[in-house]
Amino acid sequence: MSAEREPIGVIGVGWVGLVTAACFAEVGHRVIARDILPEKVESLSRGEITIHEPGLGELLKRNAERLTFTTDMSELLEGAKLLFVCVDTPPTRSGDADLSRVRSVVEELPADSDHVLVMKSTVPAGTGNSIRRDRPGLSYVSCPEFLKEGSAVEDFLHPDRVVVGADSGDEESGDAVARLYEPLGGELVRTDVASAEMIKLASNAFLATKISFANEIANVCEKVGADVGEVARGMGLDQRIGPAFLRAGIGYGGSCFPKDVSALKMLAGNSGYHFQLLGAVIEVNELQKRRVVQKLQKYLGSLVGKRVALLGLAFKPHTDDMREASSLVLAARLEGEGAEVVAYDPVAGAVARELFDGVEFRDSAMETLDGVDAAILVTEWPEFAELDWTAAAETMARPLLIDGRNFLDASQLRSAGFEYEGIGRAVADSVPAGTAE
């Protein structure tokens, strides 16, 4: 089949599906996107989106004539042969990936379907083989996504690599998918289905491992008086290591890393292999979120009755995604220690209000800092770097800041009157005697 301006079907218009649909429309394809939620389809048909992703709204508006949103599977099947599956695969209680939505899509395909199922959803290695055993003759291609929230449009339109997995007998379908991506550039990796599936899981697991390693190094740096920023910079200049994902902080979160690391660990375990390293990666990440509370206690002693501000709530800047966000753990731990929590996020506030119990929300950073005993920078939103920190210090009951992302200039904060502590950074002065209660 020819993929030149081939109509494209997208199944599931969550974050990945919507970015996929909008970007394929941007390069000239007609796209039919199907979702099972009528309210979502109606909203998108009116040009309204609730996902915060830079550039996505503009893309949808500019390509509205090429985009069709529907709940009707038959409309999708009639209009497109290449069907990109972008449904959720959340973790189950066991940690395995929940493939029920993927299976539902397969079950909706006619028995004599000549469509090509292109799997964008992150699935365990072996899923494609399992589907083809259940549906002999179904054309199946693995094309995992490597999008980063906050830069997904740019990542899609300018990929560093495109992975296309097709097994024997499906080479023509793999060729059709590969041709779709030719205008976008990026190195093409052609492989078998199981390897393509594993590339996605292995990539995210390795990045998560780098983050946890950097955090472990940060914790040692605090013990020996080293600066993790300098250590990471020196390490990253080694081309075998590279600088990316070596930034210490309060742990990773979001929709991909926690889920994919757990899924790979469970996949290995179900296959009879104990993936010890990933167990440590997960443990380090969970403990890292809690270390900030210990830092506060070093200065404040008991947190009972103390008011603590959380600056930023989303798991990373430029998104409103609260999945596995460090702020969720921090707020719960602070409340567990008896503290009162007040919070602000410039984008994720509306989403966060539905997730937190007992947290007071404010509409600006300065309002959030008013009268608090300490603040924790949780998400490195650019506006926090521009904040008048001298004025902030004057409005706080005690100008104490724990920088959970090493985002701010320590000397600037101390000059503004703050007691400042980052992650893996040497503390300039010891905690004054008598400050902890």
In short:
With 437 residues, the chain is of the alpha/beta class.
Helix proportion of residues, in percent?
40-55%
Question: What is the averaged pLDDT score?
Answer: 93
Q: Can you tell me the CATH superfamily of the largest domain?
A: NAD(P)-binding Rossmann-like Domain
Rg of Cα set:
24 Å
CATH architecture of the largest domain: 3-Layer(aba) Sandwich
SSE class: alpha/beta
Specify the oligomeric state: single chain
Strand content: 5-15%
Largest sheet: spatial strand order = 3-2-1-4-5-6
Which segments are poorly predicted (pLDDT under 50) over 5 or more consecutive residues? 429-437
The CATH class assignment of the largest domain is Alpha Beta
Largest sheet: 6 strands, parallel
Count of structural domains: 3
Could you say what the CATH topology of the largest domain is called? Rossmann fold
Distance between the termini: 73 Å
**Gross geometry:** globular
Count of helical segments?
Answer: 18
The overall strand count is: 14
Report on the architecture of this protein.
With 437 residues, the protein is an alpha/beta fold. The chain folds into three domains: 8-191, Rossmann fold (3-Layer(aba) Sandwich), CATH 3.40.50.720; 201-277, Orthogonal Bundle (N-(1-d-carboxylethyl)-l-norvaline Dehydrogenase, domain 2), CATH 1.10.1040; 283-421, Rossmann fold. The chain contains 18 helices and 14 strands. The chain has helices at residues 15-26, 38-45, 56-62, 73-79, 100-108, 127-134, 152-157, 171-181, 193-224, 228-236, 257-270, 276-300, 326-336, 349-353, 365-369, 382-385, 389-395, 410-415; strands at residues 8-11, 31-34, 67-70, 82-85, 116-119, 139-142, 161-165, 187-191, 307-311, 340-344, 360-361, 374-377, 400-403, 419-421. The strands form three sheets. It has a six-stranded parallel beta sheet with strand order 3-2-1-4-5-6, with helices on both faces. A six-stranded parallel beta sheet has the order 11-10-9-12-13-14. A two-stranded parallel sheet has the order 7-8. α13 links the parallel β9 and β10 (340-344). α9 (193-224) crosses α11 (257-270). The longest helix has 32 residues, at 193-224. Residues 429-437 have low confidence and may be disordered.
